[in-house]
Amino acid sequence: MMTLVESKAEFEITKRSMEDESEIKDAVFYNVTVPFVETFVLKNPGDFCISRTIDGAYYLSIAANKKDKKGEVRVVNLRVDDLEKEVGIPGMMFARADTLPQLIYQLKHENMDILSGVLEEKLTMNRLLGPQVTAMHNILQTGKSVKVQRKLSQDTASPIYIGEMKFSDGKIKEGVFEEFPGGGQNPTELKTFFEKLVNSKSLRGKNLPIRIPIGAIMNPPTLIYENNKLEVGCNLEDFLFFHQNRLDLTQRIKICSSAVRVLSELHHADIYHGASQLEHFYVDFVGFKNEDIKNYELVFNGASGLIREGKSDNSVSVIDYDSTAPEVAFTRKLTKESGVFNLGRLFEQILKPDLFKSYSESNEGSPESLTEMRRLISRATHPNPTRRPTMHGIVMMIRDVLLKAPKSNSHICMVHFDQFTN
């Protein structure tokens, strides 16, 4: 019988027959996505691993010997199916065996030349990597090593807490741990979890106004963020609710200004979100303006849903007709223009108290800045996408609106993300 010998994060296959598939289970990544494996597991030519995706499919993923044009490792992902009394790779008669471990052994020691020829890709299978390898990216399998210090949310469905753990650099540091709702039982939430992880790695180091996790726990699915020692932030929807009586019109317009600046900055990097909502923004406390006024900063809340122009699939199947641009109902595609439409709807939600108040009064009684914001919203939500302004155009327009805004008396002050100090 074949056995697996664990050596740190690697597993080596011995040259014995493999009859019991359970012997390979410790080397399998369960309930993950293929992009997660490509991003965080396989790093050198010849590395390979086995994963079972959220949808229940098994994959053999192999890092090819030849890198792509960017110098990154190319990964070949082969689906392994149950074929009545055996397992195998569809369309490859030589890739058949009684069990998954036997299939892996046969490919590695007997059929690599055939597999390379069929795929027209030079492949080797040198190291079978197991789940522990992701620790180098601060992605832990469980939270057993995390020392919980205090809970920030009493919501048992998605708890948030401050914890302390040892990171891959050997240092013990605090972090904010945000557990995903449902503990990983909801496939949609689980896919969002992995999407945030994968997208955040490609955006790290670019100094974009995006809240990016510094690590994760696989079970239960939990994202780890840097801990702001002064005050823990929250998403924009909660911020507006908690501070609805502390925000005046000028600060609400500044929130609108911060939101469009964030999206404009992403557009400059050829990244956009075609259907952003309040929940997609995060408000962080960044210090005191003076002893009475707190400064807050707005950033995009994670990389989930962001579309990289020319690299990401921008198609959608489910549409919110109340907030999504009308053309999306026909094209089923999210674009920069549909993102501008959603921004207009976002402005309406941010300015809701002031807009309601103005509707109950005569137009002559409305502040000029609010009247200008209503015109701006009308332009952003124009039914014809070609008639909508660009994100940068809205940045310029809202800057002029702020010059007409009344002096703020709020104890809350919104400041813009500064990419040179973050």
UniProtKB/TrEMBL annotation:
It comes from the Eukaryota. Gene3D superfamilies: Transferase(Phosphotransferase) domain 1. This is Protein kinase domain-containing protein. It comes from Caenorhabditis remanei.
